């Protein structure tokens, strides 16, 4: 996963935006599986953080289940996603401190753009996030 631009299928993009919209006060989170390097399936995981309005912490059992489903569906981990209901789509200090999968793409969905939803992607490179280009792929 060492490319400069990633494509997200319209179906996956729509699902991520919808999940963020139906949870406007709490961060959503989950995993995305891919086939042949293309995002394929969204696996929502419950956010069990004490301060879910500004942080996310994936339910461990659901996260393990999602990883198992990715494997069972012959997919690979493509991305870890979460939303920022009231902040821009950029990694927070906490996001940086807790990032543990250097080969995964990190997607952040923001609801804080005056009615316009935003998704931005980042990769962990040398213990810091670097923004990567995202484009939408027609299904």
Describe this structure in words.
This protein has a single domain, classed as Cytidine Deaminase, domain 2, CATH 3.40.140.10. The chain has three helices and seven strands, in the order E-H-E-E-H-E-H-E-E-E. It is an alpha/beta fold and 139 residues long. Helices cover 22% and strands 38% of the residues. The relative contact order is 0.23. The protein has helices at 10-21, 60-72, 93-98; strands spanning 5-9, 29-35, 38-45, 76-84, 105-110, 118-125, 128-137. The two termini are 21 Å apart.
CATH topology annotation: Cytidine Deaminase, domain 2
Helical residues, percent: 10-25%
User: What count of helical segments does DSSP give?
Assistant: 3
**Count of all domains:** 1
Beta-strand fraction estimate: 35-45%
Number of strands: 7
Please outline the major beta sheet. 7 strands, mixed
Provide the succession of SSEs.
EHEEHEHEEE
Question: Structural class, judged by helices and strands?
Answer: alpha/beta
Average the pLDDT over all residues and give the rounded result: 90
CATH class: Alpha Beta
Q: Supply Rg.
A: 14 Å
Distance between the termini: 21 Å
Morphology: globular
Strand order of the largest sheet: 1-7-6-5-4-2-3
Explain the layout of strands and helices.
Layout: E1 5-9, H1 10-21, E2 29-35, E3 38-45, H2 60-72, E4 76-84, H3 93-98, E5 105-110, E6 118-125, E7 128-137
Parallel strand pairs: 1-7, 4-5
Antiparallel strand pairs: 2-3, 2-4, 5-6, 6-7
């Amino acid at each position: 996963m060492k490319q400069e631009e990633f494509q997200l299928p319209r179906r996956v993009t729509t699902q991520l935006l919808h999940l963020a919209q139906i949870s406007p006060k709490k961060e959503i989170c989950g995993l995305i599986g891919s086939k042949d390097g293309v995002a394929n399936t969204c696996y929502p995981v419950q956010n069990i953080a004490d301060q879910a309005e500004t942080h996310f912490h994936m339910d461990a059992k659901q996260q393990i289940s999602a990883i198992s489903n990715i494997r069972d569906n012959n997919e690979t981990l493509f991305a870890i996603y979460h939303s920022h209901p009231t902040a821009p789509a950029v990694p927070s200090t906490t996001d940086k401190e807790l990032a543990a999968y250097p080969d995964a793409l990190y997607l952040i969905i923001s609801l804080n753009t005056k009615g316009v939803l935003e998704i931005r992607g980042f990769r962990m490179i040398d213990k810091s996030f670097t923004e990567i280009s995202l484009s939408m792929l027609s299904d």
